[in-house]
Amino acid sequence: xxxxxxxxxxxxxxxxxxxxxxxxxxxxxxxxxxxxxxxxxxxxxxxxxxxxxxxxxxxxxxxxxxxxxxxxxxxxxxxxxxxxxxxxxxxxxxxxxxxxxxxxxxxxxxxxxxxxxxxxxxxxxxxxxxxxxxxxxxxxxxxxxxxxxxxxxxxxxxxxxxxxxxxxxxxxxxxxxxxxxxxxxxxxxxxxxxxxxxxxxxxxxxxxxxxxxxxxxxxxxxxxxxxxxxxxxxxxxxxxxxxxxxxxxxxxxxxxxxxxxxxxxxxxxxxxxxxxxxxxxxxxx
Amino acid sequence: xxxxxxxxxxxxxxxxxxxxxxxxxxxxxxxxxxxxxxxxxxxxxxxxxxxxxxxxxxxxxxxxxxxxxxxxxxxxxxxxxxxxxxxxxxxxxxxxxxxxxxxxxxxxxxxxxxxxxxxxxxxxxxxxxxxxxxxxxxxxxxxxxxxxxxxxxxxxxxxxxxxxxxxxxxxxxxxxxxxxxxxxxxxxxxxxxxxxxxxxxxxxxxxxxxxxxxxxxxxxxxxxxxxxxxxxxxxxxxxxxxxxxxxxxxxxxxxxxxxxxxxxxxxxxxxxxxxxxxxxxxxxxxxxxxxxxxxxxxxxxxxxxxxxxxxxxxxxxxxxxxxxxxxxxxxxxxxxxxxxxxxxxxxxxxxxxxxxxxxxxxxxxxxxxxxxxxxxxxxxxxxxxxxxxxxxxxxxxxxxxxxxxxxxxxxxxxxxxxxxxxxxxxxxxxxxxxxxxxxxxxxxxxxxxxxxxxx
Lengths: 285, 455
What we know:
The complex is a heterodimer of chains A (285) and B (455).
Chain A: H1 5-14, H2 21-33, E1 37-40, H3 47-58, E2 61-66, H4 73-76, E3 78-80, H5 82-91, H6 97-104, E4 110-112, H7 114-119, E5 125-130, H8 137-149, E6 151-154, E7 158-161, E8 167-172, H9 180-184, E9 187-190, H10 196-206, H11 212-227, H12 236-249, H13 256-266, H14 270-279
Parallel strand pairs in A: 1-8, 1-9, 2-5, 5-8
Antiparallel strand pairs in A: 3-4, 6-7
Chain B: H1 3-23, H2 30-43, H3 48-59, H4 66-76, H5 91-104, H6 107-121, E1 123-124, E2 132-133, H7 135-142, H8 148-157, H9 169-196, H10 198-204, H11 220-228, H12 230-249, H13 255-262, E3 283-289, H14 295-307, E4 314-320, E5 324-326, H15 328-334, H16 341-348, H17 360-370, E6 379-384, H18 396-405, E7 408-413, H19 427-433, E8 436-438, H20 442-452
InterPro entries (chain A): AAA+_ATPase (IPR003593), ATPase_AAA_core (IPR003959), CbbQ/NirQ/NorQ/GpvN (IPR050764), P-loop_NTPase (IPR027417)
GO molecular function (chain A): ATP binding; ATP hydrolysis activity
Domain AAA+ ATPase (chain A): 33-197
């Protein structure tokens, strides 16, 4: 899919995803080694966006499995369409049971869920397993089989093996430790907060109306906020929100009043706002 | 060197690197090592930054391992061999160039200056075997922190700090200087490793990950680093506690109601009725030794429990050195300022009488006497401390009285198990009465809290 690490960054940048060297290298390796990519990092740094960008670059279909507590095999893998099967049985009254049985357990009555969808078919796909840490441990066991061999066994149909391996991205917020076995099968990528220069470029790309000077001071303030000991440090998503807010307010420079009025956009807890105000001398007036 | 020999050398370097990481508790299997080698083959050796990321992606599984990885990587895949090609620079000239580089925030230049600084200022000793390179000596002679004012004025003069962001300037420069200090330390490690052998330096001079540092020996920086992990750890624990609660709520069959329900199906129990749990949230009492020796451990645990407070109906925290006082209120306000917590406890709460050494017997006795009412059959008590009584009476009856009044008592001891009961430690005597757990690192604390906290 990619020829070099630089190729990855360049093509991701075309889709509007500015990748740090770490991200570009790992994506390149995931493609080369054919291994799933486990992405961790704080909320709002672009973990899900990465999968979308890769799909766009590769011209692949994005298949998404959103994990939540209680997600199970029938939601992740496949399910038989019981209602349709019942209709089929009642429609063919004078058939023998053997005929009916072979018929109702055929592809037509199979409802493929994301994991099976990603494996079947010849077109390129990117499989995004979002918030893997929210799923129960049992689902991890299921993923192990799918991710190591890229095959799924449906007892009535046999084993379905991927003709073309999908590019797999798993994301996690680390609210639960993922099992060692799953981690071993993946390349690990931690997306942290970008450095100042990259973040400035991201802000300028996502909010074109913001001029260079404002973006620079915005990013500097956010950097200072991140260095504080806050309950929830602002992420890239918050930086972009803030830039949009300032744009909407028509503020073209950061000053005391603007920051005080809009701090709630970047900080989500009252105690954080208080602490940041104190540290930034906002109440010095 | 033939191509074959080069490959062998690279493979040996890679396996040595993996072994050094394993020695630091990073679990790496053979499969990952093979993947790492494939990654090296795919990426080539031309770009060191790319190689670093590639190896990190294949070998690491957790974010916390990254600092150790970076330090070991610098030793096994150094950016250069030997000293710099240039003549050793003198101190004043280095300071001038450092000030310029800090002003411009020129990372590449800073890295080059770190190399030159260690080469010019960091060498000590003359005879082989006793000589080496010291980052401490380099930084003492160079004193980069004293450049702060100069760099700030320079930046202001250029107008870079105008406007609101001006007030951030000093902190930013401080961070740049901090980064430079780290560069110097890494460079000194590299030079020493050339002299003494990589394996030894990788084992001894690379600091372990924060969650594996002994509370008792953690320095100020390490404790600050640990404090930053409190919120993420608390969130993780809260998720697990919630999951445990849900699991505990289902599954146990209420036999009486199942049988009664089975009457409608002719006595065949078709539908099992599950016992419903009363959603009573447990209460937690924390009794912490805050004397000097274990203060770091107690602080961390208090902050962690405070961060978990919404998981419980009531959390009350008591601190003692040789007297007991309640500090719950201080802790709530302390959430915004964890660094000052211990100072505030010592300043505002009556935790010590006329001397400053801990006395478990008196403190536990006072707690059993004054605060016995806070203990109910729903309370779980955690005692935090090393159980070093300074040779006074351990007051075992008080512990018995506390244990009788509440649901459960756990004692978390930051000392290694082997040291329990040695010297003035009454740990074994207390361990006979209440379950005592070794809790030396943040990692151990996390597992214990997950296992022991009532649901």
